[in-house]
Write a structure and sequence with these properties.
Elements (H helix, E strand, L loop, with lengths): L10 H19 L2 H32 L3 H8 L1 H25 L7 H19 L3 H7 L1 H22 L8 H22 L6
């Protein structure tokens, strides 16, 4: 069963679950606008989980080599694409809320960091294929994905501050992922970060 859920096949159940969740929320709430509050946090949370798995995959494989971490590493691209799918759904919900629900408008300046994060996400999504790696060159491709990933991580971290009961788990996960990346870097290079 698990062997069948490799690569792009991972996106099929994710898309079906996402569509089912959105449709169920709309049916339960009695309409799209009424469903927006029910969908905003879960889509952001699921997107973050997928992002964190993709962002930590190589670190986990280096620090804790086993079948599970090798699975994450092999499927990191598809976890990232799944993150993009869920997070762009979240963006549609946010834009719907801002434009269709009274009192939800926001100052343009408060939206700029998120717009930059979504721009990185769009670039990373369209370049998540072997042809783009060849076209950009491995070095530029890695730089785009590294800078984009860390920027998105920083936005997730910023959304957890100040911590609340609803965001404490995400703050801890952000810090854990960073610790894993630092640990993997130290193991790979033999260098210790000086504080």
């Amino acid at each position: 069963m698990a062997a069948r859920l490799e690569g792009s096949r991972l996106l099929i159940p994710l898309a079906l679950l996402l569509a089912a969740g959105v449709l169920l929320a709309i049916a339960t709430a009695g309409g799209y606008l009424a469903a927006l509050p029910l969908l905003m946090s879960p889509t952001a949370d699921v997107a973050f989980i997928l992002f964190a798995l993709a962002f930590a995959a190589s670190s986990l494989a280096r620090l804790l080599p086993n079948a599970g971490t090798r699975f994450l590493l092999r499927n990191r691209r598809y976890l990232g694409l799944g993150f993009a799918m869920v997070h762009f759904t979240h963006l549609a919900l946010v834009l719907s809320s801002i434009t269709l629900v009274a009192g939800q408008a926001r100052e343009p300046a408060t939206l700029v960091p998120g717009v930059i994060a979504y721009a990185f996400l769009a670039l990373m999504t369209v370049t998540s294929n072997d042809a783009s790696v060849r076209r950009l060159g491995p070095r530029r491709w890695r730089r785009l994905h590294r800078v984009g990933s860390y920027y998105i991580w920083l936005i997730f971290l910023a959304t957890t501050l100040p911590p609340s009961a609803g965001t404490a788990w995400m703050l801890l996960a952000c810090l854990l992922v960073l610790a894993l990346r630092i640990g993997a870097y130290q193991r790979a290079t033999g260098k210790k970060l000086r504080v």
